[in-house]
Design goal:
It holds the Pfam family Chitin_bind_4. Keywords: Cuticle, Signal. This is Larval cuticle protein 8-like. The structure is a single chain. This protein is mainly beta and 106 residues long. It is built from one helix and six strands. The chain starts with a helix and ends in a 10-residue tail after the last strand. The mean pLDDT is 84.
């Protein structure tokens, strides 16, 4: 669970980090943090968007985990948009998207 919290925090920092251009501006940034849940979103004027929501999930009497669902997207230098959706839970980080390489079948 600690790993997941650290991962989400580092991910938020990476998405919020300044881009290569000095002209990048935050168009929208929202955050709502509750006792057992959170929601966050960010949109920059260079096409980067990020949103995530998390909720505390009771796995057993002694164990709980934060389940995070979200997405992020960006526009590459050629103008093509890329998007990734993900879930991060007790089973790990599970991204999905057309830009994620697929291992060849043996």
């Amino acid at each position: 669970m600690k790993f997941l919290i650290v991962f989400v925090a580092l991910f938020a920092l990476a998405v919020a980090a300044p881009a290569q251009s000095d002209d990048v501006q935050v168009l929208r940034q929202d955050s709502n943090v509750g006792i057992d849940n959170f929601q966050t979103s960010l949109e920059l004027n260079n096409g980067i968007k990020q949103q995530a929501e998390g909720q505390l999930k009771q796995i057993s009497n002694e164990e709980s985990a934060i389940v995070v669902r979200g997405s992020y997207s960006w526009v590459d230098p050629s103008g093509q948009q890329h998007s990734i959706t993900y879930i991060a839970d007790e089973n790990g980080y599970q991204p999905q998207g057309a830009d994620i390489p697929v291992a060849p079948v043996a």
